Amino acid sequence: MNTVVDTSFRRAMAPSRAEIAALDLSANSKIVQQLLGGTSAERRRSALDIGCGNGKFTRLLASLFRSVAGIDVKARKIEEAQQAARDAGLAIDFRTASADAIPFPDASFDVVAFSNSLHHMPDPRRALAEAARVLRPGGWLYVMEPVPAGNYHDAISLVNDETPVRTEAYRQVTRLEGFTALQEILYRSHRTFASVDEWLAGQ
What we know:
Layout: H1 17-22, H2 28-36, E1 46-50, H3 56-62, E2 67-72, H4 75-87, E3 93-96, E4 109-115, H5 124-134, E5 135-144, H6 151-156, H7 163-174, H8 196-201
Parallel strand pairs: 1-2, 1-4, 2-3, 4-5
């Protein structure tokens, strides 16, 4: 890792509606395939998913890396993730743990990922520092975060305004030292819910 600053790295946190409308329609699963799926075999050895929840994204990583682990502070979510991995025939190391104290030695992973989870961390700066600790030299940090803009954000803000935590998470990523910003992709995505109750349960 080095300290080169990529001046093309986008800083804007709140694209306008016109900018959002002009973005390509995509999904996290497609973006991670694009960014990590083409990496060399040497870089595909191991990955860690921080704040993995029920393990949906971790299972995607398992299709790209030989060894995958996931951590989350909620034991119930880890149990769900473990069961889903077993059902899929995947050997994933799921653990109940905090991003503030990742239960792995220094330089354990080639890729560390936060998939829609960094803004949920009580201390994003500490979580990123721990991610850097467990990354091998030359490792890649993948952060997928929703920006506080767009129709979905406007809707959830009625019950849970995440603008401050999303902004702080983004700010901490842009302040990372010892990393080179390789690429940032902004895209639109669709989310659908079967009912209002399902929507509220996801907040």
